[in-house]
Amino acid sequence: MTNAIEVQKLRKTLHKFQLKDVSFTLPTGTIMGFVGENGAGKTTTIKCILDLMKKDNGKIKLLGKEMNEDEMGIKSEIGVVFDDLHFPQNLTAKKISKFMNKVFSNWDDSYYFDLLNKLKVQEDKKLNELSRGMKMKLSIAIALAHHPKLLILDEPTSGLDPIVRDEILDIFLEFMQDEEHSILFSSHITSDLEKIADYITFIHDGKILFCESKDTLLYDYAIWRGSVEESKDLPPESMLSVREHSFGLEILLKRSEVSSAFSLEQPTIEEIMLIYVKGVHDVARFVNERLSNA
Amino acid sequence: MTLRALLMKDFLMLSKQIKMMLVIFACFIVVSLITDMTIVLVIFALIFSSLQLLTAFSFDEMSNWDKYVNTLPVDRKTVVQSKYVLGLILIVCGMAIFTPFVYFSDEFSKYFTLYDLFKAFVMVLSVALIYISVMIPFLIKFGTQKGRLIIFAIVFIPIFGSNFIQSSLLDIDVNQLMSYINYVPIGAFLLLLISYFVSVKWYEQKEF
Fold this sequence. Notes:
heterodimer
């Protein structure tokens, strides 16, 4: 199987922030959700992938090639959507198509206008007269109209209402009908990723915490809730992270390593993210300390 | 092809500004014909065309255009080229609109020959080239806010320093100074080349 994106040991230092050996792969034909809180390094990673920022170290391959091997070739096969539409505000969707027609040799005007029609984006309105939802839908139509193989999306659904988000996710699923197509989808709206992603890569403080298939995360991980004393019975090697609440402990663990006698809940990606970020990772020591204090 | 695309986008973006500029030009032409001061038009042409170039940079900056355009199959060099070509087109158009009015005005036919007009045209063009050669690299490197201040500083330092220049130039023959004037266009052209290479270098280093 080929990979649409391969990132190996990517390093980048910016003022007070660092990407620390970020590595992940996006297999062709899949959607990867790239999650993390604001400032975790999602956008910096994407900018390095797109060569908008120069990496300090590491290797990045897009569609099997490094950027310096064939920059124009790679860029003509990817579509990019940022969290805002970065065209001058006094242009219209129609004028944008005139421009893009000259930039991409395989720009498909009829597909573009079909998409606009389907998404109900007015083609003669200036961008500054369009709502945020309309702008994002236009942005996606622009990214798709040259039939790219890879979509790179940086927070395309943030700040949008559920209806628009649903419409947008449908378009992405339609795009994925072709098995040569792949999507890297950065977002902190984890419910969107639950709907469409095949893999979840979680970045926190410039480091990748995990890169797993969504099904593994949702079915192999579990959450246990209870008091400190009760937690003693859990096998220590099963526990990944613990978070303390007023009601007791919330522990993220591997379902297969815990007896089915315990009552476990299926986590959401959001819960996994919260327990990882806000929690303590050395769970056994944490529990022992709590017990000796008590 | 992509250069043409970028220019097209700039002109689409500036179309409203340019239309407004043409209306103002028409007013100036009428006023200058009445007052018989058509030569002033040439200076207006320069100021307005350089303002349009600055506006193009501001619009790009406001919409964060550079971040987007560099995800497209467009060479960074081409993005820089497009701004120089835009500047040149604006200047040449500005002068092309006004030169006929200067030529056919009374003021001109009374005092100047066609050769004088040509010389003046070349001089004004040189000044314009020098201006965009200074302007574009700084706008690229520092953005329109800081870049504008730096350009003002560069333009105004000689004015503040004019006192010094005047006193030190007193013993220089003005005619001798004027004899160098034919080199100004060559200097301007060289400066434009240097400026272009500096801009490309700065733009290629830029992160968005």
